[in-house]
Write a structure and sequence with these properties.
- The complex is a heterodimer.
- Chain A is mostly helical.
- Chain A has one domain: Cytochrome c-like domain (Cytochrome Bc1 Complex, Chain D, domain 2), CATH 1.10.760.
- Chain A contains 5 helices and 2 strands, in the order H-H-H-E-E-H-H.
- The radius of gyration of chain A is 19 Å and the shape is globular.
- In chain A, about 25% of the residues are buried.
- By secondary structure, chain B is an alpha/beta fold.
- Chain B has a single domain, classed as Purple Acid Phosphatase, chain A, domain 2, CATH 3.60.21.10.
- Helices cover about 25% and strands about 20% of the residues of chain B.
- Chain B is built from 10 helices and 15 strands.
- Chain B has a 7-stranded mixed β-sheet, with helices on one face. Chain B has a 6-stranded mixed β-sheet with strand order 6-7-8-9-11-10, with no helix packed on it. In chain B, strands 2-3 form a two-stranded antiparallel sheet.
- In chain B, helix 9 runs parallel beside helix 10.
- The longest helix of chain B has 14 residues.
- The radius of gyration of chain B is 19 Å and the shape is globular.
- Chain B starts with 14 loop residues before the first helix and ends in a 15-residue tail after the last strand.
- Classes of the chains: A mainly alpha, B alpha/beta.
- Chains A and B meet through helix 3 and helix 4 of A and loops of B.
Chain lengths: ~130, ~350
Amino acid sequence: MKLIKSLTVSLTLILAGFVHADEFDKDDLDRWTQQFNDVAAEGRRLWTSPELGSNGVTCAQCHPNSANTHMETYPKFQKQIGRVSMMWEMINWCIRNPLEGMPLDADDPEMIAIHAYLAKERSGVAIAPGKH
Amino acid sequence: MTNRRNFIKAATSGLIAGVLPVSVVKLAFGSSDQDVTFAYISDSHIQQIKGNKFVRNWDQGLKKAVAEANLLDPKPDFVIFGGDLAQLGSKPELDHGAELLSALNSKPYMVMGEHDYYLDLGDYWSDLFGDKYYSFDVKGVHFVVLNSILTYDEWTYDRWESGERRMNEMAGLDNPNGSPFMVGERQRKWLAKDLANVSHDTPVVVFSHSPIQKIYKGWNFWTEDAEEVQAILAPFNKVNVMYGHVHQIQYNQIGNIAFNSVMATAWPWPYPSSYAQAESHMPVMTVEMNRADPFNERDATGWQLVDVHSGRVDVNFNLYGNSNRRVKFNEKKGHPEDVQHSPHARTEAQKHY
């Protein structure tokens, strides 16, 4: 049963790949945009919600519209950590310290949502990894 | 990490003195009797967690400012608190804030902030501190306190189902459901009347929570009827407007009116120019403050010692964990300027983005 199922999946993938290759239409684009916007909206909700911490403080309290988070500069050397660090490590630093909360896993859906929101607010800004 | 340069070494004893920046000692001003000086503390955002638990970080900022202002020598003529004592305007927050302020050597003059106001429209704040707008005179300088964080009646009285909801909507700086600040017609009439008997040569200092100018509407670095208020102030030869709310250094000159912001004791805010999706109108003469180090929780917060010399304000910023700044009115140029930095000589490290 398991074998048949995986064969069917492979066959479907091959057929789909053969027929559609790199084609996608407006419905696909709309769906993908919608998916991104929904996750970014959840990130904005978390950004302005006390639920990430334990003391009522929110991310937006210090970072309105996520300003001064400049995610386009990550990864970069973070002098306070002493090595090249990722955006999510800084987000967790803020969750632990000013928000007095529990850090999130890098692939936690909430962390992904926050990243989506930060990226959306920086739309149009050139990436500049390592910049200070 | 403590910056050695900024802290008193062994000479002093006692816990408070041990953490005092040297700058406070240097600020002892040997000026003439005509100078009016005051300590300006603002934006403490005292925030209740639950019961008698409050956010430690914001408490510390206010405690530090109060302890340092008390050590000024000679003593300033008065202390003023620039608004947003509380985060959500509740009785426990205002009570706790009032308790921390009660450690000051003198009772401070108080300015209303939106975080103090929108829960109960300032009722409890007024029980504690009195009038929401008023004026007073010190050594020939006329001081005016405005309640500049009012807004449209419909937003205030009809839109929200409760005071809590109204407060929460206004508390989010970047909340699109917020509403622009204004002084309002009634207070503008009062201001015109208050100034009617003041000679145009008398130096005037106006304290408001919001800037009485338009910088960035999205974060309410803005007063909707700024031009109308400026018009009332225009006939005076030496007018200074000082405001909180923005948690950052700003200064500007519009006609005769010099504008100076003050820092928060709670946390710094980014400059509007660092928000990629919006245009800001930061006064071009403003040399922005250094970027804050988030790992130093008091960095880019602080308080001010203000000297009203010859009718113009000279603002000394006590910035914790950062170089102090001084923004002084330049009589020749006719506008405030930083005594050390010019807008054309910025270092890369100061860039906000």
